[in-house]
Amino acid sequence: MMLVITIVSLLMLSVPSSNAAISCSTVIQDVRPCVSYLTSGNGMPPAACCSGAKALAAAVTSTADKRAACGCLQSAARSLNPKPALAQSLPGNCGISLGFTISANVDCTK
What is the pLDDT of residues 32-80, one digit of tens each? Predict the structure, then answer.
């Protein structure tokens, strides 16, 4: 009987949690087409960038997802140094809402 309980416990631990937040690799993959636009572009974002932003918006459904995505984007921004105005206007220019403001000063925990 103890063996059955142990096996069931191990199986439960190996099942992915539905509460798991989006991964940074998924966030970066979605916004990768936006990098050159955000660092040296102007005007409206390219279609590929908006497609990626829309994929990200569709993927961040929970509060945990939004917090994780926000943190990933902040971390990426530190190394990429995007133009702040382009980053902040990206969701609106692509017709989406991420549920958080894209800004170096936003608190991703809220």
Answer: 999 999 999 999 999 999 999 999 999 999 999 999 999 999 999 988 8
Burial of residue 76 (CB within 10 Å: 0-12, 13-18, 19+) is middle
Both tokens of residue 28? 């970066």
Prediction pTM value: 0.77
CA distances in angstroms from 73 to 28, 83, 101, listed in the order given: 8, 13, 11
| Structure tokens, 35 | 């990098």
Q: How far is Cα 45 from Cα 55, in angstroms, rounded to an integer? A: 15
Closest CA to 71 of 18, 19, 28, 17: 28
Rounded distance between C-alpha atoms, residue 64 and residue 12, angstroms: 21
Find tokens 């220019």 and name the residue: 93
